[in-house]
């Protein structure tokens, strides 16, 4: 069974940091580009970052550029999202998604173009 599982969410104070993990089971994550998205109540799902299958190309949305870092360890079948300087407006459910592509360039694309999704992990930024 192909599955993505996010972990690492939680409650953090403004200015704090978290590292989210996206672990794959049932398939080799190294063949897939990965995107991180988030969705706050009443809002559309927002693309945050992406990374190519090799890790050679990354991209970030304007709202997280300079604060979030995406990385991957294909040997562990896992992708990470390091989030620094968190703000209350970062509060949302965070999702990872996988898309099989051989592209060497990562471009933020809409969620409909991804093949597999995790169940999400809640991140709450509050004092």
Short description:
By secondary structure, the chain is an all-beta fold.
Describe the structure.
The chain is 0% helix and 48% strand. The chain has strands at 3-7, 10-12, 18-25, 32-39, 46-51, 58-60, 68-73, 78-83, 92-100, 116-117, 121-125. By secondary structure, the protein is mainly β. The chain is globular, with a radius of gyration of 13 Å. Strands 2, 4, 5, 6, 9, 10 and 11 form a 7-stranded mixed beta sheet that branches. It is built from no helices and 11 strands. The model has no long low-confidence stretch (mean pLDDT 95).
How would the blueprint of this fold be written?
Blueprint: E1 3-7, E2 10-12, E3 18-25, E4 32-39, E5 46-51, E6 58-60, E7 68-73, E8 78-83, E9 92-100, E10 116-117, E11 121-125
Parallel strand pairs: 2-11
Antiparallel strand pairs: 1-3, 3-8, 4-5, 4-9, 5-6, 7-8, 9-10, 9-11
């Amino acid at each position: 069974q192909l599955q993505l599982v996010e972990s690492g969410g939680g409650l953090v104070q403004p200015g704090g940091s978290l590292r989210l993990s996206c672990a794959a089971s049932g398939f080799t994550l190294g063949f897939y580009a990965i995107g991180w998205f988030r969705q706050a109540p009443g809002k559309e799902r927002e693309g945050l970052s992406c990374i190519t299958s090799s890790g050679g190309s990354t991209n970030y949305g304007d709202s997280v550029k300079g604060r979030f870092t995406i990385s991957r360890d294909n040997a562990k079948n896992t992708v990470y999202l390091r989030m620094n300087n968190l703000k209350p407006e970062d509060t949302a459910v965070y999702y990872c998604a996988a898309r099989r592509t051989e592209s060497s360039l990562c471009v933020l694309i809409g969620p409909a173009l991804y093949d597999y999704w995790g169940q999400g992990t809640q991140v709450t930024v509050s004092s």
